[in-house]
Design goal:
It is built from eleven helices and 14 strands. With 342 residues, it is an alpha/beta fold. It folds into two domains: 159 residues, 3-Layer(aba) Sandwich (Rossmann fold); 161 residues, Dihydrodipicolinate Reductase, domain 2 (2-Layer Sandwich).
C-alpha cells in the first residue's frame, strides 16, 4: 500500500529534509507540497539539490485537497502551525514539527512562546513525539507533536537516568552545542556568515531557552517531583548537528549500564563502549543518535555526551519515524541511511 503524503512548510530546512528521506521510502508518495511564500515555484527552484526528484510544485496549503492525503507533515513556525492545523480535516493524520503542541499545559505554552494557545481544544489529543518513549501512544495517535531538537538529545541522555534514580536530580548540568540550521531558513543578522563563522557563543543563558519547557514537563513527570536542569545552548558555526555534554552526580558505571540497558533494543540509538564519546560527524545526515559515558576525575561524577543530527533525528527523521508508526509501517522505513562522513 502506498500512503499519500502532504508537507506544509516544504520550503524550509525540515521540509526539505522530509522530502530527502521520503524519496527513499518504500511506501510513501508525496502528492502535495505547500509553502505560501513560494507558491507557484518548483522544488528545483527552491532547493536545487532535489531537482532529480519528480515532485509536485509548491502551492498554498489552502489549495491542497486533503481528501486525497493519508498523512500531513506540518513544518511551520510555532503559532502559525496551530492556526493552520486547527483548520485541517479532523480525520487527517498529522505530524507537527513545530512547538505548538509539545507542552500539555496551555499556560506553559504561553510562558515559553509568548502567545496564547490557538488550538486548546486539540491539545488533549496531541501525543508527544519522542518515539522511543511514546511508541504505543504514537501508533494510535491522530496528531503527534514532534520534540525540539535540543529537547530530544537531552532526553535521550537523561530520561533513563532519572527513571532509574541513578543520578542526583538536584545537580544536572546540560551543555549543548547547536548547529545553525536549528534556527531555520529565514534571514537573521546574527546568522550571516560574517557574523557567525570563526566564532562561538552561548545564547538563551540562564534557563530562558524554550526547550527548557519540555525538559521541565518530561523530567518532572518521570521523577514524580519537580526537576530542573541547568541548560545552556551554544551556537556553533556548523550546518548540522547537536553535541550535548551532560554532567551528573552518580556512579559512572551505573550510569553507563542504565543507558546501555535502556537502548540495547533500539534501532537508532547507540551507546558507545565505556570511555568513548561521539562526534556530530558520526551521525551527520542520519537518524542515529550516539551516546558515550565516561567517569570524571572527581569521584561520584559522570559525564555523558550525546550527538545527533538536528534536522534528521532531531526533527524530520523523528517525524518520519512517528509517521511510520501511525501508518502501520516498519518504524525504520526510509530511515536507515548511513551517516555522511566526512
Amino acid at each position: 500500500m502506498t500512503h499519500k503524503i502532504a508537507i506544509i512548510g516544504a520550503s524550509g530546512y525540515t521540509g526539505a529534509e522530509l522530502i530527502r528521506l521520503i524519496a527513499t521510502h518504500p511506501s510513501m508518495e508525496i502528492v502535495a507540497l505547500a509553502a505560501n511564500s513560494k507558491a507557484g515555484q518548483s522544488m528545483a527552484q527552491v532547493f536545487p539539490h532535489l531537482r532529480h526528484l519528480t515532485l509536485p510544485d509548491l502551492v498554498t496549503w489552502e489549495q491542497i485537497d486533503f481528501d486525497t492525503v493519508d498523512l500531513c507533515f506540518c513544518a511551520l513556525p510555532h503559532k502559525t502551525s496551530q492556526e493552520v492545523i486547527s483548520k485541517l480535516p479532523k480525520s487527517l493524520k498529522i505530524v507537527d514539527l513545530s512547538a505548538d503542541f509539545r507542552l500539555r499545559n496551555p499556560a506553559e505554552y504561553k510562558k515559553w512562546y509568548g502567545n496564547d494557545h490557538a488550538a486548546i481544544e486539540m491539545q488533549s489529543e496531541a501525543v508527544y513525539g519522542l518515539t522511543e518513549f511514546y511508541r504505543n501512544e504514537i501508533a494510535s495517535a491522530r496528531l503527534v507533536a514532534g520534540t525540539g531538537c535540543n529537547a530530544a538529545i537531552g532526553q535521550f541522555i537523561l530520561r533513563p537516568l532519572i527513571a532509574e534514580a541513578v543520578i542526583d536530580l538536584t545537580d544536572i548540568i546540560l551543555d549543548m552545542k547547536c548547529a545553525v540550521s536549528g534556527a531555520g531558513r529565514s534571514l537573521k543578522e546574527n546568522l550571516l556568515h560574517a557574523e557567525l563563522s570563526e566564532g562561538y557563543n552561548a545564547y538563551a543563558v540562564g534557563g530562558t531557552h524554550r526547550h527548557q519547557g519540555e525538559f521541565d514537563q518530561e523530567f518532572s513527570a518521570i521523577a514524580g517531583q519537580e526537576v530542573q536542569v541547568q541548560f545552556t545552548p551554544h551556537l556553533m558555526p556548523a550546518n548540522r548537528g547537536i553535541l550535548a555534554t551532560t554532567y551528573v552526580k552518580g556512579d559512572p558505571q551505573a550510569v553507563y549500564k542504565t543507558l546501555q540497558n535502556a537502548y540495547e533494543e533500539e534501532p537508532f540509538i547507540f551507546v558507545l563502549p565505556f570511555g568513548e564519546t561521539p562526534s556530530t560527524h558520526h551521525v551527520r545526515g542520519s537518524n542515529f543518535c550516539h551516546i558515550g559515558v565516561t567517569g570524571d576525575r572527581i569521584n561520584g561524577r559522570a559525564i555523558v555526551v550525546g550527538a545527533l543530527d538536528n534536522l534528521t533525528k532531531g526533527s524530520s527523521g523523528q517525524a518520519l519515524q512517528n509517521a511510520n508508526l501511525m501508518l502501520g509501517e516498519d518504524e525504520t522505513a526510509g530511515l536507515m541511511l548511513v551517516p555522511c562522513f566526512p
